[in-house]
Design a protein that fits this description.
This protein is mostly helical and about 130 residues long. It has a domain of about 80 residues. The protein is about 60% helix and about 0% strand. It has three helices and no strands. The longest helix has about 30 residues. It is elongated.
Amino acid sequence: MSLPQRPLRQVSPSLFVAALVVVAALQGLATLWLRQSLLVAPARAGRLDLDSEAGAQRLFRVALICFVLSESVAIYGLVCVVLVGSWSVALGFVAAGLALLAVHAPRLAPLRPPAGSADLPHRPDPIG
C-alpha cells in the first residue's frame, strides 16, 4: 500500500521574494537592536569595559553574530538569482547586506563613553 502522490504546488516568485524581504528586514533590525542593547548602551553607561578580556570577548561575540546575520541578507540575493532568476531583486538584497556590514564595521568610537563623562576616563579610539 502506497500513499497517493500529489503534485507539488508552485510558490509564486513574488510571494517568495516578499517573504525574503520580510525576513531580511527583521534580521537587519535584529542586528541593530543587538548592537545597541548588548554593546553600545552598556559601554556608554560604563557597565561594559571593552579593554577587559570579558569586554573584548563580548564585543567579538556580538560583532560575529551581527556580521553573520548581515551577510545572510546579501546571500538571500543569491537565492533569488538561483530560484527566481532575478538579478534586479538580488542587487537590492546585496546592497542591504553591504549596508548592514558597513554599519557593523569595527569602530570603537560609538562604544566609548562621551568625552565629557567624568566617571570613566576617555581613551582615544585605537581603530579610528
